[in-house]
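Checklist before submission:
- one chain only
- standard amino acids only
- sequence pasted in full

Submission:
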Amino acid sequence: MIFNKDTAKKTAEVLLQINAIKLSPKEPFTWASGWKSPIYCDNRIILSFPPIRNYIRETMGKQIEQQYGKPDVIAGVATGAIGIGMLVAEYLGLPFVYVRPEAKAHGRKNQIEGFLESGQNVVVVEDLISTGKSSLNAVRALKEAHVNVKGMVAIFSYGFDIAAQNFKEENITLNTLSNYENLLEQALDTKYITEEQLATLKNWNANPSEWNAN
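Returned file contents:
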């Protein structure tokens, strides 16, 4: 869910500006999953641009307070959301933990790194939502630690139907600063893409696993 339309357009604008999101309909990228894609998103680049980093931190922090109230802890999803999550926690003056994809095989064998107490209210911070699988894996780990997961806030979502279904099944609310729909609007408004490219980008989003650039 997009919390604020102006924020969605502004966030899309800055992500395109610093090439955190790249659109390339004619020369698609290949994701780790093997999918061909006309879009690539790497929100870790945000950390290298202080004004944009601060914008994301403050906007996400305010959205968390407005949507969920002030939680006890902010949890970032490793690895992409560790930096952003920590900045948001700092902005809100809250403790921070992060959640690994799986427990370590050595040492204390933690999956959750940081201090967390049973019964605490936690909001999860994520950088990017595709299918939601890895994000919800972190949510399940937190639930197993007997904390109350209030919801999740992410910078950007591809807006896949499968993600909406996965979050619904896990009964977790997701709010994002921006999403694919608003990204395309912003890209078209600023002439970053043409109407023809817009059609290609929409076709991909409708069926990404089967999409072929040719």
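Reviewer check: The two ends are 32 Å apart (CA to CA).
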